Structure formats: C-alpha cells, structure tokens
C-alpha cells in the first residue's frame, strides 16, 4: 500500500502546532485561581488583618512555624469558615464550568449548560420535598443526598425519554426531552412548595445556593468530583472529534454515541455533585467555558482544563463579593454570578471580536 | 492500491428504501464519479460505503468485507468527507487536519509525534502550511475544501470518498480542487469515489461513472457510455447536447427546450 500523505519523505518545514494546552495559558489560569483563593481567605466579615492571616496560613503548613498573633476565635474563623468556604467554592465552580463545557461539546450547542437535561429541576424538586416534609429534621444531612438523587434522576429521566422518543438517540430529541422533564419537574416542585408555603424561605435558601458548607460538604463532594473530572478531562480529544459532526466522527472510527453517553454521564455526575453541596448556582457553566474559548482557544483539550480552573476562580471571587458587598449580610451567590458574570462576559466578547461563521 | 466493490447494497432510512440493490466496482487507483438527480441516493451510497449508515449487502475492500473490520480498522482504509462538513470556527487548521489521525490514536490516548509529522507533511503538500495556525472561521471556500481534503489525507487511507467536493466553489476553485485530487490520486495510487453534480466536470475527471436514479443503478461504465443525451433526459429531465472533446471525453451542454 502506498502512503497517501507522503510522510516517508521528511517534512520540509516541520509544523508542530497542536491542540494541546499551552503552558503559559495554564500557568496564567492557575495564578488567577490562586490569587482569587488568597482573596477569598483574606477578605471577610470578621475583619482579621490580612498580614496575620498570611502568617497563620504559613504556620499551618507542615514544618513551618510562624506566630500570627491571631486569637483562637480568629483562627477558628479561618479554619472552619473561610478555608472550607473557599475550597468548596473552587470545587463547585470548577465542576459546574467543566460540566457546562462538556455539555456544550456533546450537544454542539453553545447555549447548553449543566442544567440542560433536568438536573436543576430534579434537584429543586427533591430538595423541596425534603424541606417541606421533614420539617427540619436532619435537614442538613438529607438535603445533599436528596439533591444529588434528584439531579441524577432528572437527567436519567430526560435521557430515557429522549431515547424512547428519538429512537436514533439524536441530540435534538434529547434536548427537547430535557425541556419537557424540566417543565414537568418544576411544576411538581411548585405544587409541593405550595403545600408547604410556610417553608418557602428555607426552600429558597437551599435552592439559591451557597458555598458555605464546612469541611463535611467538601469531603462529601470530593469523590464524585474526582471521578467525573478525571473522566471528562480524558475525553477532551474525543469531544474535538465529535465537534466535526457525527458522520465524520464515525467515519474516523469513533463510536460517537458511546462517547456522547460517557461524557454526558460524567458531566451529569459532576453537576449533581455540585448541586448537592451548593444548590443551584447559574451562569458559571455557560460563561466560563465561553470566556476560555475566546481567550485561549476552542479545542476541548484547552477548554475543559481551563474551565475547571477558571470556574473555580470565578466562583471563589463571586463568593467574596457575595459576602462583602452587603456585609455583614450576604447575597445569594447565584445573584452575584449573574450580576458580575454578565458584564464580564460582554467585556470578553467585545475584547475578542471574531468572525462568526 | 485498493479495489473497492459493493454487492447488492441497500439502505433503509426511517422505513423508506433510499438505496436498493446497488453494486459497484472500482479498480485500485481509479476514479469513480457517482452522478444522479437530487435525492437519487448519491450521498447515501457514499455514506453506506464509508460505514456511516447501516446497510444490507456487502462493501468490500480488496475482497475483504468492511463489515468484519473494527471501526478503527475500517477508518484506516476508507477516508470520507461529507458534502457540508462541520468546521468549528475556532479550531485551527492544524488541529482539524490532525483529527484525521484518530484511527491511529488509542481511545483515550493522545497523538504521537508521528501523527503530527504526517499531518504537517499533508498540510505542506496541499500548500496549507502557512495556514496551519489559522482558525477555520478565517478561511475562504477554496481553502476550506483543501483543509477538509487534508483531514481526509491525514487518515492515510487508500480509498478516498468525497461527497460533492466542489459544492459552493466557483469554476476556478472547482478546477483547482479536482486537479489536486487527481494529482494526489496518481501520486499515491488512491482509489477515489466522488459524487459530482456537474456532469461535464464529472466527465472530465472520472475513469468510470455510475448513474443513480431512484436509489438504483441506472447506468454505469465509461463516461461516454453514461453521459448520453438519452440517459440524461430520462433521469435528469434535462435537454442536453453531448459533444465528444478532443481528448475523447464527453462534454455536456445544456440546450434550451
């Protein structure tokens, strides 16, 4: 057989540009994330001096000893409030952004977000049921599990419905199934909410979302986060192949339907894990991947890892604003993500004007 | 060089028989042009041969049934470019062409240096090296068609299936692309199967032609046997005059009724 590419001759001008993530972009994003986490730890309602916080953090490092002069109460604020809050914000933001990017890849639709297939509506319903019928018993333990089950259940319901209606498993049918499931579950949720209207405020407190959950929430989310993120990051190249269309992906020897299913499952797991520990935080899953695409490139091998890091940074910063703008009162973090995210996104769009095809 | 043949190929889509009992035979290194009116089943035939659509019957490459190959093995033998390929606007030319190496890359693996070298030399060959870093959204129609071709060539498959490779190109660019395909075919011994809607153009490049009508083969053979005034009238409903050029190839000219 002859060699159609002529690769037997050495290439004259070796071009070696590739989809891979460039170290500079990675370093910049890591730096942004670290800076935002530092801001998250340093800033807060308790008004602890930033310099002392730095010293205290150093002191907590193994083999390092520094005298921060912080009182035990201040140390407690740092260790039990700020640190877990920053970390949970980072994990949840990263999960939502990477899940959003994956959904966009699977559906080849820039408007896809992690809640597209009913994860939000499912979690909203189960959370409402728990709050209304448990009336506060063990709520903080049960709600995360219920929200997780609801999110997963919503997605599975949409997937099953899409397969029954679509036969071929086309993405359009799946999106429509997601719309139907979301409407239905939201209607049921509203109904349950009416039954327990006196619990409305607590229902909303859960649904609107917060990343103030303490270390136990972090240990709760980490296993799911690790598995789903690892699976998604491994599929970056295959999402690039899917982006040229199903026919071509199949002609390249790829089982497009299977790749799509695996990525959908992993992204839904990431979403459910995030929703379970933080409620429904919107906007991160759409804004961050698109900002990354504009600034760093469109390959999913760039978009997925940078969305993970960028989403983490974005949500930590949003949380800093949420707890300082009206301090000592707090804004729901979802309000901040939209309020800050929308103008930020417009700025990114304007800075990176491109020819759209 | 690889012979391509198909026996009794039928495709049913949504309960409708789109292709039925199609047979074809292309000698290794030859160019087969598939022609036919809109909706006759040309693209479906190409997709079935490419393994993109489920079919009954048999597609064989050098006598081996494609059905028995694993998808990745099949992709190393058959490269396919659809009529309107999706070209993600923010993907670079190099990255796009590199996707052609997918059949050689393990499922969750990454491309090797060899894959990059092959891609680079393909781009070089198609005069696309200066565009390597450009995004697909910033290309002209002719450049895009060349980039799609580069992706298919990076696959290093001996059989090239091109669905209307010249759609939406002006006359000059049509000629450029088809000359390029022909040059590559001769240089590498590629077997080429294309659908082409322009009958004159098809007659100029093809070694053999196949006329599809209503999902069945209406005629096949040398261009002069397929491009006849009678067949074109029957299957396209068009009045034409066929004149044999100095090179013995038929030219099709439209006539006002």
Automatic annotation (TrEMBL), chain A:
**One annotated Gene Ontology cellular component of this protein:** plasma membrane
Q: Which InterPro entries match?
A: ABC_BtuC-like, ABC_transptr_permease_BtuC
A Pfam family for this UniProt protein? FecCD
Where does this protein have coiled-coil stretches?
A: none
Name the source's superkingdom: Bacteria
UniProt family annotation: Belongs to the binding-protein-dependent transport system permease family. FecCD subfamily.
Name the record gives this protein: ABC transporter permease
Originating organism: Planobispora rosea
From TrEMBL, chain B:
Q: Does the keyword rRNA-binding apply?
A: no
Keywords from UniProt, A to Z, are:
ATP-binding, Nucleotide-binding, Translocase, Transport
Could you tell me which InterPro entries the record lists for this protein?
AAA+_ATPase (IPR003593), ABC_transporter-like_ATP-bd (IPR003439), ABC_transporter-like_CS (IPR017871), P-loop_NTPase (IPR027417)
Question: Could you name the domain of life of the organism this protein comes from?
Answer: Bacteria
Q: Which CDD domains match?
A: ABC_Iron-Siderophores_B12_Hemin (cd03214)
A Gene Ontology molecular-function term?
Answer: ATP hydrolysis activity
Q: Which ranges carry the ABC transporter domain?
A: 4-239
Q: What is this protein called?
A: Hemin ABC transporter ATP-binding protein
Q: Which organism is it from?
A: Planobispora rosea
């Amino acid at each position: 057989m002859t060699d159609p590419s002529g690769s037997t001759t050495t290439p004259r001008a070796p071009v070696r540009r590739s989809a891979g993530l460039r170290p500079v972009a990675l370093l910049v994003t890591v730096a942004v994330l670290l800076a935002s986490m530092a801001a998250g730890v340093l800033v807060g309602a308790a008004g602890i001096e930033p310099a002392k916080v730095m010293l205290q953090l150093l002191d907590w490092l193994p083999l390092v000893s520094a005298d921060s002069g912080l009182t035990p109460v201040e140390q407690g604020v740092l260790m039990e409030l700020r640190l877990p809050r920053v970390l949970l914000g980072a994990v949840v933001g990263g999960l939502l952004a990477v899940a959003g990017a994956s959904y966009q890849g699977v559906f080849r639709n820039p408007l896809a977000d992690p809640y597209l297939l009913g994860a939000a509506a499912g979690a909203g319903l189960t959370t409402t049921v728990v709050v209304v019928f448990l009336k506060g018993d063990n709520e903080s333990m049960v709600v995360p599990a219920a929200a997780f089950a609801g999110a997963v259940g919503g997605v599975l319901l949409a997937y099953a419905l899409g397969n029954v209606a679509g036969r071929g498993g086309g993405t359009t049918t799946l999106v429509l199934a997601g719309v139907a499931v979301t409407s239905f579950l939201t209607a049921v949720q509203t109904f349950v909410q009416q039954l327990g209207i006196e619990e409305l405020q607590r229902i909303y407190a859960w649904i609107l979302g917060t990343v103030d959950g303490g270390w136990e929430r972090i240990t709760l989310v980490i296993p799911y986060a690790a598995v789903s993120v690892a699976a998604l990051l491994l599929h970056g190249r295959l999402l690039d192949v899917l982006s040229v269309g199903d026919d071509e992906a199949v002609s390249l020897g790829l089982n497009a339907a299977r790749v799509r299913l695996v990525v959908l499952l992993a992204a839904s797991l990431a979403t459910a894990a995030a929703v379970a520990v933080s409620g429904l935080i919107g906007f991160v899953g759409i804004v961050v991947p698109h900002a990354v695409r504009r600034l760093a490139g469109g390959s999913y091998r760039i978009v997925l890892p940078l969305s993970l890091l960028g989403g983490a940074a974005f949500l930590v910063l949003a949380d800093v604003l949420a707890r300082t703008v009206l301090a000592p009162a707090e804004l729901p973090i979802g309000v901040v993500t939209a309020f800050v995210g929308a103008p930020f996104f417009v700025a990114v769009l304007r800075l990176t004007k491109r020819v759209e095809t | 060089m690889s012979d391509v043949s198909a026996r009794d190929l039928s495709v049913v889509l949504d309960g409708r028989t789109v292709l039925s009992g199609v047979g074809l035979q292309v000698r290794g290194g030859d160019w087969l042009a598939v022609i036919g009116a809109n909706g006759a089943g040309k693209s479906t035939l190409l997709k079935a041969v490419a393994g993109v659509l489920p079919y009954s019957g048999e597609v064989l490459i050098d006598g081996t049934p494609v059905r028995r190959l694993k998808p990745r093995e099949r992709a190393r033998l058959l490269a396919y470019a659809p009529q309107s390929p999706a070209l993600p606007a923010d993907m670079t030319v190099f990255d796009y062409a590199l996707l052609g190496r997918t059949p050689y890359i393990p499922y969750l693996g990454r491309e090797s240096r060899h894959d990059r070298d092959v891609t680079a030399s393909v781009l070089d060959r198609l005069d696309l090296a200066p565009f390597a870093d450009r995004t697909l959204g910033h290309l002209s129609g002719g450049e895009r068609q060349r980039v799609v071709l580069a992706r298919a060539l990076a696959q290093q498959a001996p059989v090239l299936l091109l669905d209307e490779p010249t759609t939406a190109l002006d006359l000059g660019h049509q000629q450029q692309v088809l000359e390029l395909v022909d040059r590559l075919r001769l240089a590498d011994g590629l077997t080429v199967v294309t659908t082409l809607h322009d009958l004159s153009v098809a007659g100029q490049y093809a070694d053999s032609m196949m006329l599809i009508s209503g999902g069945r083969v209406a005629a096949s053979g040398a261009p002069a046997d397929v491009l006849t005034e009678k067949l074109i009238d029957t299957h396209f409903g068009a009045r034409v005059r066929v004149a044999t050029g100095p090179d013995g190839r038929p030219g099709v000219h439209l006539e006002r009724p």
